[in-house]
Model the fold of this input.
Amino acid sequence: MISLRNVEKSYPIAGGQTFVLRQITLDIAQGEFVTFMGPSGAGKSTLLAILGMLDGAWTGEYYLFDHAVHALNTKKRVALHKEYVGFVFQQYHLLDDLTVSENLDIPLSYRDIRKSERQAIVADTLDRFGMVAKKDLYPSQLSGGQQQLVAVARAVIHKPSILLADEPTGNLHSAQGQEIMELFTKLNKQGTTIIQVTHSETNAAYGNRIINLKDGWIE
Amino acid sequence: MSDLRTAFRSLRHRPLFAVVAILTLALGIGATTTLFTIVNAVLLRPLPYPHADRIVSVSETTDGKDQQVVTQDHYLEWQQAAHALEYLAIYGGARQVMTGRGDPVELSGEQVSAQFMNVFGARPVLGRGFRPDDEQPGAPPVVLLSHRLWTQLGADPGVVGQTLTLDDTPYQVLGVMPPGFAAPRNATYWTLRVLPTLKPGFTFFWQVVGQLRPGVDAATASSELAALNRRVAGTATPDGGAQARSGVVVMTLHERMFGSTRKALLLLLGAVGFLLLIACANVANLLLARAAAREREFAVRVALGAPHWRLARQLVVESLLVSVAGGALGLLVPLWSLPYFLRISPASVARVSDISLDPTVFAFALGVSTLTGLVFGLVPALATIRGNFAASLAGGATRTTSNRTQHTLRRTLVVGELALALLLLTGAGLLTQSLARATKVDLGFHPEHALTLNLSLHGDRYYGGAAGMAFFDQLAERARALPGVRAAGYSDAPLVEGYRMTTSILMPKGGAKSPPMAVAEVSPGYLEAVGVELAAGRLPGRNDPPGLVLSASAAAVLFPQASPIGQTLNLTSINSRALPIVAVVRDVQQPGADTPRLPQLYVPMTANTPYVLAVRYAGDPGPVEAALRAAIKDRDPTQVRYTLATLEQQMTQYVATRRFNALLINVFAGLALLLAAVGLYGVMAFQVTQRTRELGIRKALGADRYRVLRFVLREGMGMVLLGTVVGVALSLGLTRFLASLLFGVSPRDLLTFSTVPAVLMLVGLAACYLPARRATKVDPMIALRDE
Amino acid sequence: MATDGQALIQLKGIKKVFLTDEVETHALADVHLEIRQGEYVAISGPSGCGKTTLLSILGLLDTPSDGEYLLDGHAVAGLDAGDRARVRNRQIGFIFQAFNLIGDLTVYENVELPLTYRGMASSERKERVHAALDRVGMSHRVKHFPAQLSGGQQQRVAVARAVAGDPAILLADEPTGNLDSGNGEQVMDLLRELHRNGATICMVTHDARYAAHADRSINLFDGRVVDEQPTVPAHA
Done:
């Protein structure tokens, strides 16, 4: 499903270039649950951003299903991103001014879905994630674990094929982290391909494959 | 010292902040200082005389209308009997030609009565002042020189006793007044005006000044003088009806001189005050944004153990640096703009000769802006220091929005700025429209292609009409001989300015008295030359027998039923003979005047010395002007007291004050709009920077360019809309104070109230667009990286 | 000043609770800790375990909700804001993950900054700044601005700033977090050298390899110390 060939990313600096990713060649099949590990600055988050088509400035080849991502312009990449990808961040990144249901609605509102239909999907998701009682609360009224739960729900509300997660339990206590990981496992069993970045061996154990990165190289 | 160095560098590293803040302050401080300096000089500063608060102008009213003058018999009665006044004097401006000392020059002087200098508490520095016996009939004519004229004449210490020739009359120099003394305004010399003997049925009117006795107020003086008037009425005049309608006004001389300018100046002061407010709001916003952007720097300093007072001191130094730089630059604004404003300002302002930069005002404006700088620089930074800075040190702020209180404060400031800018724009719109209407008023005549010469002949030989008419006939002859000249003629009075003579005549039917009408003597060719539009009949030519011309309104009053052409009118008080009416012309109107002119009678030249020559020409007025100058010089080179101008130029003079007001408020409104736009841009740009993370998240969640653009624009235009609504409400409430300065425009004029908000919205949209476009370029990676 | 081997820092039953509208988050739950003069201690644990909160409390940037903190035998709890600023200035040297050099100031001025807050004479400041920059090998860059330096260089300047005032303890929060592994190693070497010369260091990291540099590693998990053991120096 995902195929990277010789992907590289670098920044120009005075007198040369500094590489963030070097010669990344990688295949991920549909339904996998992959973990990127490595020290800070190894390039894990950058790789995740490239996979999610949030980062366009790289070289090499990237095939997603039958799309040659490297050959597409920004607009088409944004369209692919909208169709296939959901994101979960370490900092949850819920919008503070919006309630739980409004946060869930954001990805739908960006996808030209009718209002009534959107309401139905949000209601359904609130049910599925057991958050109906919290739908009118603001993020600041939730614990970190609850916020991340909302963030995961928001990431999958438009039923993406791939869920990308950047240190999803990084800010959570172990019990909350465990809850998120179990949720990931469940989503993975329902067919979502999951790629996560983590420092935690425990979290990595939930997945089926670990890819180690160091200084931009796959080890 | 190191704080100062750091502050300098910190400004240099953020040049945009520094430049915008300093320029904003400079504009606000500069504009305020400029205008307040004018207002202070004109309205607030007392006149430069001892007891200036007791120097009053006295005048009489008829039907509540201030006539600005006093009848002679009343004046004489007051002089005898009034206790409220220490001194009382008459005065009247005179422009006379001085000969015998080099080329003839026209001087501006004052004809006064002997007590005049006592009213102002002035004594000569050389020679002696006027004495009552100088006023006695038959006394030799005497003159007091201003220090300025004395200096111009060579500052001769032996000038006392010498002779000065003014309008061909020799005057003996009595003395020289102290430097700077020019009462009532810009006089260069003073001669005595001897009161004429009153004939029954005739009276004279004088401008009167007095000095109140200490402890007496204007109201007391006014009621005493009114009581004295009733005594005169009881003993002398049987016509008690006219007396009942009259009253006495006593106001300070200051009020008399500047009262008419006050309203406009105060209005402009209000406008500039709003401008300063906008500038301060802008600086406040800049400082708030800067404090937020430097949150981490202050957190680091706190972590390194900086005592709070050290941080406060650093901020104070930075704020002061910006204020001082803005102030220094702001000081240049009045230095540069004051002379310009004075050049274009209306006469009453321009005649204040000693307007110079006011240090108090400058200090005030600098103080206000410095205070703004301190409050808005210190408070948010200190809040940062006291708040939770550990989070900003770790760099892992999980918030997606910035501090809510500051956010609200910033928005409020911008909405306020926009509202004030809209208010000023509305004022500017209304005044500009007034100017346009006043300029486009239906004059009733055609000023284009008409040249006028206002020549005030001096010398006894021209007194009584015949010699003056001969002089003017010759000028008209010379003009008619030029190619392209279609008509030339003269009159004893300007066409639309003031009245040389008004009269009530006996109605042709019924014998009642008509309402007052203006009378002007005109030569054949004059009405054609000024372009008056003919309504009926035929204007008399040079070879026609003398006839009368009526204005349409005069015709309507005197002959409401029939056509006046061919009727005769008996003007015993003017020409002492009956004349046929040969034509009716349209009424003329002065541009921008609030009331229509009186019905007008144009009678043939007989008794008066002509004053105005008008020439209708084709093409360029240059040759006509040159020919007239040459003709005057040929005939009598001492006649230098004249002005030449096209009638169109004269018409623009009447709207000069309107133009000045409109120009100034337009400048202020333009600056206000600019500052508000900069403020809006600043806040939006800051918002985009602050919300980079949120924008990144939104993009990561699938927002496309268009949606991000809309998201940011909606935010900005929300402020613009709110500012517009508040501004319109404010304008609806405040423009009524403009009403008396408007001409032909309602204070709630629909056109202005629809155009101005539209302009504000457009400018607002432009100011929001740039930050919005930058928002669309936010890298969604930002949501992943945690710095 | 405590002599070598005495407890410089004593934490007894430290708790930190964050309150929001509806929830209480226990960032630290009952932490007991002693750091002796001259020790090099690493605090490690997964993200969110409370490491940074603990470091903020140690550095007097934050106050515990409960518990006792003795610094060099003195209770910290009673200090007012001014006293706390003085203690931070004289006793504590901070090294941050994000370097946190002040962009408007040169390298020299950045290092000098904590000294100026003490009202130290300028000749003594100069001496100390140069000595500190010599120790981190950055004395050739005194006039540069932070933006003109690489991340590794910036962090070395930050280390110089932290040690210039001769603090009782260095607190380092993920000092290698924003660096690549090469530059990270260099900074770790620098810290080890400082330690050899007698500096007391407390470092937060989630990287086990870096924790191994320390004498002692404290493992924090869900706001508690779960494991405390001497480490065998990995790079002896």
The interface with chain A takes residues 396, 398-401, 693-694, 697-704, 707, 779-781, 783-786 of chain B (CB under 8 Å). The longest strand of chain B covers residues 85-99. Chain B has 23 helices and 23 strands.
